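Q: Please design a sequence for this.
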């Protein structure tokens, strides 16, 4: 996949329909009402009665209605789509995954790269964007002036043109707008191929890529010019692997069957319609609140003229008014008007729309607080949130191989660029637990097992602190046994022979002497 020719349509025609769909996903994810109006904008007409219709004569849907002229647009947006994407990321990476390799030196260096690079936060960002846009790219790059290690960054799916072969990503071109002046658009294209990365700066228009310009023409790409090789537009990576991977949110893509693109959590029009209905429900609720403000209907005689052409005013603090010849029960005079707010109806509607939307996206209602809110244990949480756990595990299976591949690329670049000399390895990945055990529940479990004399001091510590290393467990166990008076002298320190393990009682209950 070389850099594109001059003066070609951009984005390329083969990906343009997919990118238009991503624009709708992005509008819901961003929560930007302007974007929602733009992606749902339709050409319509007024049938003469004020009832707006589209070109087929159908009534406008909520976000298809044009923005009202001369008054404020009171439509509200409920950010449920953003909540779904954020929750999806939390289920995957609220607890950072564990990367393990066999060589200790490589493990130390890998931990250093991941910690210094804030990779745990990068993965959270990538997972959230991936849930919204159907997938995300992870890119390995470097800048020796900024960091003495390779860098891992997330690239959004709506600014990439991939190339697959037999289901494997073989090349990908990322682009970004670096400058826009009137109708002129400057784009930086970055094409990743095995062994190299190509860079190009193009001066074009909103729909045409335009012509190649020197990288020095833009401040955003000037630094790259000094790194280019003899070919003039590429940088050698020194490794054979591709320096980017694509991680689908979930497959298959129901609209583009047979493609390698993943699908958004709300790609289905049915879920988007539920989002729209939810927004309309909240807007109607807020309209009830506005209309329910108390208003007074007063006779014209109660109004004070401000002069010719200046209108009239009403003094609601005045205590004495002109008397009228009417009984006090007739209701004549001041009339208070205050409409009811349909709280229950609106609340039931938004809960029903929200629940159906999150369940259609593959999650349990309990995950979003739409189920039973009674305090429950972690085991009960897993049971009630089974739908969310299944979706999480399904997404994790797409993440694991690609994440292992890009981390291996980081280690290969680390060695190739001279940042370290450790031997690169492909790591094993273990995803963290998305539901942490309640400390109270853990303590009660330990107490019951200890009361039944079915748990050693070491096992108690490991159960309470599963993330600790063996050394930490050993030290804490020794402190507990010492405080309780149950610590046995280490045979290696006393010179005695016996069956007891250092720091722990022997099987026969002795103190380091020869076991029975």
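A: Design:
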């Amino acid at each position: 996949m070389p850099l594109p020719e001059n003066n070609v349509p951009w984005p390329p025609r083969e990906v343009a329909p997919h990118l238009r769909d991503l624009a709708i996903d992005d509008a819901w994810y961003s929560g930007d009402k302007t974007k929602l109006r733009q992606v749902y904008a339709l050409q319509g007409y007024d049938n003469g009665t004020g009832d707006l219709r589209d070109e087929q004569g159908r009534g406008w849907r909520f976000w298809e209605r044009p923005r009202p002229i001369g008054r404020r647009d009171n439509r509200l947006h409920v950010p449920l789509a953003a909540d779904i994407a954020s929750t999806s990321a939390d289920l995957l990476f609220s607890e950072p995954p564990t990367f393990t390799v066999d060589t200790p030196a490589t493990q130390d260096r890998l931990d250093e790269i991941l910690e210094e690079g804030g990779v745990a936060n990068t993965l959270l960002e990538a997972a959230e964007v991936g849930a919204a846009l159907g997938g995300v790219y992870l890119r390995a790059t470097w800048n020796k002036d900024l960091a003495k290690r390779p860098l891992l960054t997330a690239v959004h799916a709506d600014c990439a043109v991939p190339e697959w072969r037999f289901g494997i990503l073989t090349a990908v071109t990322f682009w970004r707008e670096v400058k826009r002046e009137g109708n002129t658009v400057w784009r930086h294209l970055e094409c990743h191929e095995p062994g190299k990365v190509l860079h190009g700066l193009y001066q074009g228009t909103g729909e045409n890529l335009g012509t190649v310009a020197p990288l020095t023409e833009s401040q955003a790409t000037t630094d790259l010019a000094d790194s280019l090789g003899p070919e003039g537009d590429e940088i050698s990576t020194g490794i054979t692997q591709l320096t980017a991977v694509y991680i689908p949110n979930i497959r298959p893509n129901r609209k583009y069957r047979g493609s390698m693109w993943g699908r958004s959590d709300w790609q289905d029009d049915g879920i988007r319609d539920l989002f729209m209905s939810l927004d309309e429900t909240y807007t109607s609720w807020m309209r009830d609140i506005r209309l329910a403000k108390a208003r007074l209907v007063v006779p014209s005689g109660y109004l004070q003229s401000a002069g010719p052409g200046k209108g009239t005013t009403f003094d609601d603090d005045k205590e004495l008014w002109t008397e009228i010849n009417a009984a006090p029960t007739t209701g004549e005079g001041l009339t208070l008007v205050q409409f009811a707010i349909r709280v229950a109806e609106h609340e039931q509607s938004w809960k029903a729309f929200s629940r159906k939307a999150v369940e259609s996206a593959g999650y349990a209602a309990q995950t979003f607080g739409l189920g039973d809110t009674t305090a429950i244990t972690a085991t009960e949480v897993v049971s009630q949130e089974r739908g969310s756990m299944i979706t999480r595990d399904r997404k994790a299976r797409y993440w694991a191989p690609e994440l292992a591949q890009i981390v291996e690329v980081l280690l290969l670049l680390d060695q190739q660029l001279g940042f370290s000399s450790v031997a690169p390895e492909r790591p094993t990945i273990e995803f963290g637990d998305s539901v942490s055990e309640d400390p109270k529940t853990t303590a009660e479990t330990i107490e019951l097992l200890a009361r039944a004399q079915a748990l050693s001091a070491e096992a108690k510590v490991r159960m309470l602190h599963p993330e600790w290393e063996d050394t930490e467990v050993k030290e804490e166990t020794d402190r507990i046994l010492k405080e309780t008076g149950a610590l046995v002298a280490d045979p290696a320190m006393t010179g005695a022979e016996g069956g007891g393990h250092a720091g722990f009682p022997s099987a026969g209950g002795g103190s380091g002497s020869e076991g029975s």
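Q: Thanks. Anything notable?
A: The two ends are 74 Å apart (CA to CA). The chain is about 35% helix and 15% strand.
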